[in-house]
Amino acid sequence: MGGTPSGWWGAFPGPKVRGITTYMLSPYELKANHNLFAKGTFNMFRRVVRQLPYLVPAGLLYWGTLSYGKKKHDYLSSKAGHAEAEGH
User: What family, per the record (predicted)?
Assistant: First the structure.
């Protein structure tokens, strides 16, 4: 390849190789984002709203457990927490 362009990806210069099968997609199958802004935004909003009953309780449980753990850790790391743990 010294100094000559190697061609587009997969189309390297040189003799044809026999026994290799290539596949292509139809141009109609390549339009994955065809209606992304027209229908995709509403569809994403609808899916997120449908998942809220599952996400909100889990998020609240996580937030409550985390805040309780932080408060308990701060208390046990304080002077009063040390005194309580030692039984004074």
Answer: Belongs to the UQCRQ/QCR8 family.
Ramachandran category for residue 7: left, alpha or beta (phi over 0 → left; psi -120 to 50 → alpha): left
0.85 cut: is pTM over it? no
d(C-alpha 56, C-alpha 60), whole Å: 6
First to last CA, the chain: 82
In sequence order, the 6+-apart residues with CB closer than 8 A to the CB of 7 are 13
Instruction: Note the pLDDT tens digit of each residue in 51-60.
Output: 999 999 999 9
